């Protein structure tokens, strides 16, 4: 999977005398890469891109019931005054023109711009249409969106990631996906000349129900640094959990048998968990393990980064709680999701947590605490992680946390020490990873030596949808268990 990224925040280009509508243009510098920016998209055919202005405005609409009542009573004048407002999204396509290297970057049909094989950077100027003038100068919420023109390859819904051979409309599509991005357009940028913020928004819809646009949203930093960005495994984890907790996004795919055999993979015939699917195990994991009738689910994430996984799970549990039958065996209301990471990750994580809206039901507790694995593997946990008296976690989860091999002993030690510190007899862990290099296999040796057992017969590979056939990418999902 690839990501559209801005290499610097957008910049306003003031309207000049030749401007037909007096509106400014926007200067954009973007690229399309893999999650860590280590590989540029190299498509077999040019990919058309679209730049849109999205405006959330309150539109006046007639209240039909009041109109009918007024007509029946002969009071048509008052009936015509019965108006109400409802939110509506207005979309405006911006005409784009390549800047620099014009011979290589020619506008595609309709004014859209194309990303072609061999490109590293795309510089363009996007002109606002005259139809957007009133909205541009209003106080309405405005965002810029940069996406692939072909909706079938624009990664907007979890089902596209879990079932990549199907488009969001259910028709057969290509195997590749490009994740769009959004950028806020604050009023201060328009009216006071302030600069655009250095953050962009990622958004992924999670509901299996048509018409339900519930989505996970997190901001990441603009630029080339891989820190404070959304990474593949976190995104896949959110899609996997949405598929598990909210109902199938589509019929389940056939199991893959290409998973690599790990040092401690057991013989499936001897493994009591081998016949269970990871989904059924995960559903069990997402139930409070305590016997107390008032027990609520508690989940901890290690190495949360920008928070895509922890925030995503909180949103998923919230959506599940809204539609849950009161007599159901699993009730997610009151669940706690705790994000943990190093202190330098706290600001971005908390900022993204603040974006999450649990209305109309305040169902989930979303928290953050700093946790350094160098302290954790020694059993040193702050009160935000291990309370007094200790409260166990039903599930510990982590994604894309194995790339730094030097930290693997501390990671495994933290998992084991956390289980001891919280008095959890049996601890289960959900781990998703994208293998960056062979040395990461050390993780499985360390886990086995520490008494952690892999469930469900091994890891489940999820092939990421990519447009470049030479850039195959796979995320593996593992469930581990340890009893003390």
What does the model show?
This protein is α+β, with helices and mostly antiparallel strands. Helices cover 21% and strands 27% of the residues. Helix 6 runs parallel beside helix 8.
Question: In a nutshell, what does this entry contain?
Answer:
InterPro entries: Methyltransf_16, SAM-dependent_MTases_sf. The chain has helices spanning 64-72, 76-79, 133-136, 158-162, 187-191, 232-245, 278-285, 308-323, 346-355, 373-376, 408-421, 442-449, and strands at 2-6, 11-13, 25-33, 47-62, 83-93, 95-98, 113-115, 122-127, 141-148, 178-179, 181-184, 199-205, 215-221, 298-301, 336-341, 365-370, 395-399, 426-433, 453-454, 460-463, 474-483.
Topology (SSEs and partners):
Blueprint (H helix, E strand, L loop, with lengths): L1 E5 L4 E3 L11 E9 L13 E16 L1 H9 L3 H4 L3 E11 L1 E4 L14 E3 L6 E6 L5 H4 L4 E8 L9 H5 L15 E2 L1 E4 L2 H5 L7 E7 L9 E7 L10 H14 L32 H8 L12 E4 L6 H16 L12 E6 L4 H10 L9 E6 L2 H4 L18 E5 L8 H14 L4 E8 L8 H8 L3 E2 L5 E4 L10 E10 L1
Parallel strand pairs: 1-10, 14-15, 14-17, 15-16, 17-18
Antiparallel strand pairs: 1-3, 2-3, 3-8, 4-5, 4-7, 4-9, 6-8, 9-11, 12-13, 18-21, 19-21, 20-21
Helix pairs in contact: 6-8
GO cellular component, one term: cytosol
InterPro entries: Methyltransf_16, SAM-dependent_MTases_sf
GO molecular function: S-adenosylmethionine-dependent methyltransferase activity
